[in-house]
Design a protein that fits this description.
28 helices, six-stranded mixed beta sheet, four-stranded antiparallel beta sheet, 602 residues, alpha+beta, 48% helix
């Protein structure tokens, strides 16, 4: 790492030639008009601009590079430096001071503008405190409007008009010939010589001698370090993610470009994979919402890294099973291309597994993160997941993770443990009896009282288990709820005892009104008939079903509800009975007798 102080004019020359470019992971960024004016004022006063940071390429950039906005003519050149920090400042200065066209910017409300920047000479030679006012933003046609843009005002569309107004065009500043020609026109009136001399000394000289403190990182700096440095210095923008860094890295892979005649487009490949997954299984997101909805690119890359490091460990390469940021950043393009199809197929299998658990919508998915190790396991052992006993072990592991709420915190260490232990358990190789996720999971009865919203994985899990065990809707009574009907019938978690009725008749139990104990999956149509006390709406629903009362009672019971308590409007008995029924459901799914009710071990 070295610190340099090149002149601003030389830095902008490098931008124009393509010697200084951006790594492709840098996002486009447009500063607003007011900030550009303030930035130019800083340069004219020779006040510190702030340090910028760049990475030496060594002549062979490890990232795909692209020119700064406005300097696209130099993009074909292999850059000497990649700008990591300072994009907004240098782009704004390059457009305002170094190109012969208006700057593309925005106003305070985000409206697109095109502006030329001038300096009012008379104001610029005044006190430094007035310098911001001396920098003038002029519309594209170079006519400054008056009366809220209703009438034309000062016209700067010709050099004679600029000189008459005393407005110097700042995009001339580093072009000696144009500055000289403008000066000649300005001092035709000899009275302008004194102010021009002051302007040269107080403004032009400052700009011509302005230097830019620049930290230059060595070409040997690792990708992990580049990513970390970028995120630390880029505090004003959106945080960089690994996918964007790999996108730039893979696009810069010259061997691939030479072999295939084009650079590798990671986003296109991810979009294709994600579209196929979401089209088949909506639990991964909505196809129309694009690649950022639901299953993420980071999830996919983590699964790929788990598969690669597991195989590397098995091959004696000295790797540990891992999917930390470092592992993702060190994922070679050829390895990604080798493993991506397997991992994509594995996620498709995960979609079918979730469907068997009656989890089919992204909003109903307890943990997205838990799908990462599950997909890795499928990618590694393939059809072994369908072997006798394997489905039971995977299902138990999944529900222990959900109901034990094991994936609610840091997952980077749990991912590799689950992959290795679940595979060992499935294969019965003696390395592990049960995965830690199964051994450590516990569900305490008190948790039922506090499961009140979809923010909890266990809340969503019990909702899915109720459907899985055969719940029948109270209006569409022709069969159990199935995944295909959930959207069609607008099935959601609905209260059994209306909250208003509980608040009126059981004020001391009002907190239990929102508990999962008092909720069950029902259609929107059924919920519209569920007004008033339960005994009343049961009669309505029974009539609407066209069934005998005892038959409809069987339908109600598929939701693990005590029908007599419901018919008697007995909330206390209903709640205690259903809580125990849900605990039995949880215990069955987890395959563990570690749940409690009233401090008695079950």
């Amino acid at each position: 790492m070295a610190l340099d102080n090149p002149d601003l004019k030389d830095v902008l020359k490098d931008v124009a030639s393509g010697a200084l470019q951006l790594p492709d992971f840098q996002r486009e960024w447009k500063w607003d008009d007011e900030r550009i004016r303030a930035l130019i004022a800083t340069v004219t006063l020779k006040y510190p601009l702030g340090v910028v940071m760049a990475l030496h390429t060594g002549g062979t950039s490890q990232f795909k590079a692209r020119a700064l906005k406005g300097a696209e003519a130099g993009e074909a050149q292999v850059p000497d430096l990649l700008l990591l920090d300072g994009q907004q400042r240098l782009t704004s200065l390059f457009q305002a001071l170094n190109q012969d066209k208006p700057v593309e910017t925005v106003d305070a409300r985000g409206k697109n503008l095109k502006r030329w920047y001038y300096v009012d000479i008379a104001k610029a030679v005044g006190p430094p405190a007035d310098r911001d006012d001396a920098i003038v933003s002029v519309p594209e046609d170079r006519v400054i409007k008056r009366d809220f843009a209703r009438r034309p005002g000062r016209d700067l569309s010709a050099i004679e008009l600029e000189c008459a107004a005393g407005y110097f065009p700042l995009h001339y500043v580093f072009d000696t010939q144009r500055v000289g020609a403008w000066q000649q026109e300005f001092v035709r009136d000899p009275a302008n010589w004194p102010v021009w001399m002051k302007f040269q000394e107080q403004v032009l000289h400052n700009m011509l001698s302005f230097d830019v403190p620049m930290i230059k990182l060595a070409a040997t700096t690792t990708m992990d370090a580049v990513c970390a440095v970028f995120e630390r210095v880029n505090t004003g923008g959106v945080p960089l993610n690994v996918f964007e860094l790999l996108t730039a890295t893979y696009a810069g892979n010259r061997a691939h470009a030479a072999e295939h005649g084009d650079y590798y487009r990671l986003p296109d490949e991810w979009h294709r994979i994600k579209k196929e997954l979401t089209s088949a299984y909506s639990v991964f997101g909505r196809p129309e919402a694009g690649p950022d909805d639901g299953l993420s690119s980071s999830d996919f890359l983590q699964a790929v890294a788990l598969v690669r490091t597991w195989e590397g460990k098995r091959s004696g390469l000295g790797l540990s099973v891992s999917c930390k940021r470092r592992d993702l950043l060190e994922l070679p393009l050829e390895e990604f291309r080798r493993l991506a199809p397997r991992v994509a197929e594995a996620f498709s299998w995960v979609g079918s597994f979730l469907e068997r658990q009656c989890i089919t919508r992204n909003a109903d998915l307890p943990y997205r993160t838990q799908l990462v190790p599950l997909a890795a396991v499928r990618a590694l052992i393939g059809e072994e997941t369908n072997s006798p006993g394997a489905d039971d072990r995977i299902t138990q592991w999944y529900w222990c993770g959900v109901l034990g709420e094991m994936y609610g915190g840091t997952t980077e260490s749990r991912f590799p443990r689950d992959v290795e232990q679940l595979i060992g358990c499935i294969r019965g190789d003696g390395s592990v009896l049960v995965p830690d996720t199964v051994a450590e999971a516990a569900f305490l009865s008190d948790r039922l009282d506090t499961l009140t919203t979809r923010n909890s994985a266990a809340y969503k899990g019990i909702y899915a288990l109720l459907i899985k065990q055969g719940a029948v809707d109270w209006y569409f009574t022709d069969g159990p709820l199935v995944p295909d009907r959930l959207v069609e019938q607008a099935v959601d978690v609905r209260p059994i005892f209306p909250k208003e009725w509980i608040a009126k008749n059981h004020r001391g139990r009002a907190g239990h009104a929102n508990s999962i104990v008092n909720k069950t999956p029902l259609s929107l149509r059924a919920s519209k008939s569920m007004t008033g006390p339960p005994h009343a709406y049961l009669k309505t629903l029974t009539l609407e079903s066209g069934m005998r009362p005892e038959w409809f009672g069987d339908v109600v019971s598929t939701h693990l509800v005590d029908l007599p308590a419901l018919e008697a409007d007995d909330f206390e008995t209903f709640y205690a009975h259903r809580a125990n029924q849900l605990l039995d459901l949880v215990m069955s799914a987890m395959g563990k007798r570690t749940v409690f009710r009233d401090a008695v071990e079950r």
